[in-house]
Amino acid sequence: MSGTIPRRELILQEAAHLFREKSYPGSNLRELARRAGIQGGSIYHHFASKQEILFQLMDHTMSDMIERLTKRLADTHTPLEKLRTTIYFHIEYHVTGPDQTYITDEELRNLEPENYLKVVAKRDRYQRIIEEILSAGKTEHGWLLDEPKLYTRALIKMCAGVSTWFKPEGELNIEQIAEAYINLFSNGLLPR
After folding, report:
1. At what angle do helices 7-22 and 98-106 cross, to 10 degrees?
2. Predicted pLDDT at 19
3. Helix (H) or strand (E) holding 67
4. What pLDDT, on a 0 to 100 scale, did the predictor assign at position 45?
5. CB burial of residue 76 (10 Å; 0-12, 13-18, 19+)
6. How far is CA 30 from its chain centroid?
7. How far apart are CA 164 and CA 169, in angstroms?
8. d(Cα 115, Cα 137) in Å, to the nearest integer?
9. 116: which DSSP letter?
10. Predicted confidence pLDDT, tens digits, the chain (192 residues)
11. Contact (Cβ atoms closer than 8 angstroms) between residue 181 and residue 94
12. Spatial distance between the Cα atoms of 15 and 26, rounded to a whole number of angstroms
């Protein structure tokens, strides 16, 4: 075992890194076991298959995002506060867990049908949280918003994309990037 990370968690962590590096189809359990520091067959003590590992990664990521965002939003009141919190959260989450979020965003097509439906249901639930914030802003503040679903998807992709170029030693930190995105997005919603 590596440090205090439970073996199952270590396997998932290494799987996320491997799947991001080589793609899900391009990865095999033998290499995953080597990276996790265990014998090849030992993976089957924790997971039934590579598909189960992919599903567990994605399912956990979506559940975690829903739970954490919901907790952060509990202390907010106005649609703008909620939007600010959501943008900051989404950027931060993707920057601090790029392997897991990349897999969840990009490997959906490799899930078996039953697993696909479960992950998509959680993804849709996460998107609805954001759609409800935008719809509340339209109702309460007259935000220009004719397609809440489209705006939600654009917001999610815009924030998730930060993880592809963010550098901790770069010119801007997460807070500054989030603030710029908040201004960009919210100013586009203001009535003219």
Report:
1. 60
2. 95
3. helix 50-73
4. 87
5. middle
6. 27
7. 14
8. 34
9. H
10. 445 778 889 999 999 999 999 999 999 999 999 998 888 788 888 899 999 999 999 999 999 999 999 999 999 999 999 999 999 999 999 999 889 999 998 899 999 999 999 999 999 999 999 999 999 999 998 888 888 899 999 999 999 999 989 998 999 999 999 999 998 888 877 776
11. no
12. 12
Q: Among all chains, which residue has been given the structure tokens 């202390």?
A: 75
Task: Please give the helix or strand (H or E) that residue 96 lies within, else none.
Answer: helix 79-96
Q: Dig out the tokens for 184 from the structure.
A: 């960009």
Please give the pLDDT value at position 97.
87
Q: How far from 95 is each of 86, 90, 104, CA to CA, in Å? A: 14, 9, 14
Alpha helix (H) residue ranges in 23-49: 29-36
Length of the chain: 192
Please report, as a single letter, which amino acid is at residue 65.
Answer: M
Per-residue exposure over 102-141, b if at least 16 CB sit within 10 Å of its own CB, e if not: bbbbebeebbeeebeeebeebbeebbebbbebbbbbbeee
Nearest to 103 by CA among 5, 21, 10, 11: 21
CA distance 13 to 100: 8
Q: Say how far apart CA 175 and CA 120 lie, in whole Å.
A: 29
Q: Is 34 exposed, middle or buried (0-12, 13-18, 19+ CB in 10 A)?
A: middle
What pTM was computed for the model?
0.89
Q: Is 175 helix (H, G, I), strand (E, B) or coil?
A: helix
Q: Rounded distance, CA 135 to CA 131, Å?
A: 6
Q: How many angstroms separate the CA atoms of 141 and 134, rounded?
A: 10
